[in-house]
Amino acid sequence: MIMQDVNSAIATMNKLQSLGVKIAIADWGRGYSSLIYLKNFPINTLKIDRYFIHNVANYPQKSAITKALIQMAQNLNLDVVAEGVETEA
Q1: Is 85 helix (H, G, I), strand (E, B) or coil?
Q2: Cβ(56)–Cβ(34) under 8 Å?
Q3: Per the structure, how many domains does the chain have?
């Protein structure tokens, strides 16, 4: 829905945030993920897609991407949630 009218969606999100609503982007890294959204959308939380988390300890590429996403989100002062965490690794 957001992608059909981005400007209207941003305006609505700004209004919601002014009311104290926290906004998260879920499933980051799949589908409509784009770095420009992190700059333009008024969000509070980045939820990393479970694809990057599943077996992350066994795949150096997933680990590198996940670490980079976490660092990027932290540098943007966003909270980070990793979907599908099931092990300490």
Answers
A1: coil
A2: no
A3: 1
Is residue 87 in some structural domain? no
Helix ranges (H only) for the chain are: 6-18, 35-40, 50-53, 60-75
Q: Distance between CA atoms of 42 and 86, rounded to whole angstroms?
A: 29
Per residue in 53-83, pLDDT (tens digit) is: 888 889 999 889 889 989 999 999 999 998 8
Of 67, 72, 68, nearest to 57 (Cα)?
67
Could you tell me the residue range of the domain that residue 12 belongs to? 2-82
> How far apart are the C-alpha atoms of 80 and 37, rounded to whole Å?
15
Q: pLDDT (tens digit, 9 = 90+) per residue, 2-27?
A: 677 888 989 999 999 999 999 998 87
Domain-embedded: residue 89: no
User: To the nearest 5 percent, what fractions of the chain are helix, strand and coil?
Assistant: 50, 15, 35
**Could you identify the residue written with the tokens 């209207």?**
8
